[in-house]
Write a structure and sequence with these properties.
Elements (H helix, E strand, L loop, with lengths): L1 E2 L10 H9 L2 E4 L4 H4 L8 E4 L5 H13 L4 E5 L9 H11 L13 H9 E2 L5 E5 L7 H13 L3 E5 L9 H10 L7 E6 L7 E6 L12 E5 L5 E3 L2 E3 L4 H6 L2 H19 L7 H14 L4 H4 E3 L3 H10 L5 E4 L2 H6 L2 H7 L2 E4 L4 H10 L3 H12 L4 E4 L3 H12 L7 E4 L7 H8 L7 E4 L6 H12 L14
Parallel strand pairs: 1-4, 2-3, 2-4, 5-12, 6-7, 14-15, 14-16, 16-17, 17-18
Antiparallel strand pairs: 7-10, 8-9, 8-10, 11-12, 13-18
C-alpha cells in the first residue's frame, strides 16, 4: 500500500518511488498512473479498476500477490487516510491470507493544502469527510459538532458533490454557532496539480457553491488569523515567551462563552442581550439568568455607543464591590471613571441628618455631581429606589441603569420601580437574585460590546 501524495511527482516520497520500482504489478485508479509511470520497472503491469471499485481492487491485489507477484496498490494522498489501507487490512484478515502487507505513508491532501495556505494546522486539528456513502449523516454531524465545540482546526474532505449539495452549508451553520464569523477558512482545489487554486475567506464569507469534490476546506480555530496573505494558527510560542497570562485567561474565557452559548435554550436572540446574558451566566454559572435577565431593546448597544463617543464619562455604583469588579483596562481604553460614594466623608453625615441609609445618601451625592452617569446597583435596593425617586423629581437623568440588587427586603419592588422609565436603557436581574459581581460583569459587557460580534470576551482580563 503506497500513498503517492496529492498529485504532483514532487510530493511522492522516496520510499514510495522505490516500492513502485520493485513492483511487478501496480493496481489503482487509472488517473493516478500518469504520476508513477516513469518509475515503473520494465515489464511491470498496471491494472485499473475504475472509480468506486475499491473492494475489487483489493481482491485483485491479493490474487496477484498470492501468485507470488510483488504488488503495489496506489492511493492518492496517504493510503491510510480515507485510502485503501484499512480495506486491505480487513480483507487480509477475512481471507486469512499469508500475504505480507506493508503501508507506506504519503503526503495527504490536507497537508499539501495547508502548506499552500501558510500554517493553518499549527495546533490540534481533525479531518472530517462529508461523504455519507459509508457513514450515516447523523454520525458525521455529531463529529462536526464535536470538532466545532472543541475548537479544533478542521480539514474537510469530500465537501460537496453533484448529489451532496447541502452538507457543507450545514457544517458552516454548525461552526458559526461556535466560532467567530471572521474565522479564517482556506480553500485549496487540486492542490499540487497544474490547475491548483488557493484562496482564503472567512467562516461567514465561505460560499459552498465555490467548492467541489476536488477542494479541501480548512477551517481555523479561535486563535487563527491572516497575516501577509497567509493563514496562521499559532502554537503559542510567543505567548509563552512573553509570559502573557492575560492571553491565556482570554482563551479560557472565550472557550467558556462558546460553551455557554451552545447550552442556551434560545441562542437566537439580539446580540446585545446575548452578550449581557453570556457575561451573567459566566459569572454565576446560573442558567436561570436566561429567564430572569431583562435587557431593554438596544440597551447594551446604546450604552456602548455612548461610552465610545465620549457622551457617557462616568459609572456610579452603589457599593465598592461593584466598582472593583469593573475592568480597569476597559475603563482606561474608553476614558471612563468609576465612582462609588459610599466611602465619601459627606455620606455618613447626610445619612445621620436625613435618617436614610448610607447607600441612599451616596446616590443623592452622586446625582448632584453626575446626574447623567450609568448607574449600577449590585447590593442595595434602597439606593436603587432613591435613584428612582430622584428621576421622578427631575433631579437625575441617568444614561442607563443596571439593576441587580440582591436579597429579600425591597429587592423585587426596587426593580419594578425602575421599569416605568421607558426612555432610559436598562438591564435588570429580575426577582431576588443579583449581586455586586453580576452588576460588575454587566458593566463589563457594555464596555466590551465591540468584542461581541467575534464572541471574544476577556480582552482586559
Amino acid at each position: 500500500m503506497a500513498g503517492i501524495g496529492p498529485g504532483s511527482a514532487g510530493d511522492i516520497t522516496g520510499a514510495v518511488l522505490e516500492a513502485i520500482g520493485r513492483a511487478d504489478v501496480v493496481i489503482g485508479y487509472k488517473y493516478y498512473f500518469q504520476f508513477i509511470e516513469p518509475y515503473l520497472k520494465p515489464g511491470a503491469g498496471c491494472i485499473d479498476t475504475g472509480m468506486m471499485r475499491e473492494r475489487e481492487r483489493a481482491e485483485q491485489a491479493f490474487e496477484q500477490a498470492e501468485q507470488g507477484r510483488t504488488v503495489c496498490i496506489i492511493s492518492s494522498g496517504d493510503a491510510g487516510i480515507y485510502g485503501m489501507a484499512p480495506l486491505v487490512m480487513e480483507m487480509k484478515k477475512e481471507r486469512n491470507s499469508s500475504v505480507k502487507v506493508e503501508v507506506l505513508p504519503g503526503i495527504s491532501a490536507f497537508q499539501r493544502a495547508a502548506s499552500l495556505l501558510g500554517a493553518p494546522v499549527g495546533h490540534d486539528f481533525c479531518v472530517i469527510s462529508l461523504s455519507d456513502l459509508m457513514t450515516p449523516w447523523a454520525k458525521i454531524e455529531t463529529r462536526i459538532k464535536a470538532a466545532a465545540a472543541a475548537d479544533f482546526v478542521t480539514a474537510v474532505y469530500n465537501p460537496k458533490s453533484h448529489g451532496r449539495y447541502w452538507q457543507l452549508y450545514r457544517l458552516q451553520e454548525i461552526f458559526l454557532k461556535h466560532r467567530s464569523s471572521e474565522t479564517p477558512v482556506g480553500l485549496v482545489r487540486q492542490g499540487g496539480r497544474e490547475d491548483q487554486s488557493v484562496s482564503i475567506t472567512t467562516l461567514a464569507g465561505l460560499n459552498p457553491e465555490q467548492v467541489d469534490m476536488f477542494t479541501v476546506v480548512i477551517i481555523g480555530n479561535s486563535q487563527s488569523y491572516i497575516a501577509d496573505g497567509k493563514f496562521i494558527t499559532p502554537r503559542g510560542y510567543y505567548r509563552e515567551k512573553a509570559g502573557d497570562t492575560a492571553g491565556i485567561g482570554q482563551e479560557i474565557m472565550t472557550e467558556s462563552f462558546h460553551t455557554i452559548e451552545g447550552l442556551l435554550r434560545k441562542p437566537d436572540i439580539p446580540l446585545g442581550r446575548k452578550w449581557a446574558l453570556l457575561h451573567a451566566i459566566h459569572t454565576t454559572a446560573d442558567f436561570d439568568m436566561e429567564n430572569i435577565l431583562s435587557v431593554d431593546d438596544g440597551a447594551v448597544e446604546t450604552l456602548y455607543e455612548g461610552f465610545a463617543a465620549g457622551r457617557i464619562k462616568t459609572i456610579v455604583t452603589d457599593v465598592t464591590m461593584v466598582a472593583s469588579g469593573i475592568r480597569k483596562g476597559a475603563l482606561k481604553r474608553l476614558g471612563v471613571e468609576v465612582k462609588c460614594y459610599l466611602g465619601d466623608e459627606r455620606v455618613a453625615a447626610m445619612a445621620a441628618e436625613k435618617g436614610i441609609t448610607r447607600t441612599q445618601a451616596g446616590i443623592r451625592l452622586a446625582v448632584e455631581e453626575h446626574p447623567d452617569a450609568l448607574y449600577a446597583f449590585g447590593n442595595a435596593p434602597t439606593a436603587l429606589m432613591e435613584l428612582c425617586a430622584l428621576i421622578r423629581a427631575g433631579k437625575a437623568a441617568p444614561a442607563g441603569i443596571i439593576a441587580a440588587p440582591v436579597g429579600f427586603v425591597h429587592v423585587c419592588e426596587s426593580k419594578h420601580m425602575v421599569k416605568p422609565f421607558k426612555e432610559i436603557p436598562k438591564i435588570i436581574v429580575e426577582g431576588r437574585k443579583g449581586g455586586s459581581n453580576i452588576a460588575a460583569t454587566l458593566c463589563n459587557a457594555v464596555l466590551t460590546f465591540d468584542d461581541a460580534t467575534d464572541l471574544k470576551p476577556g480582552r482586559d482580563v
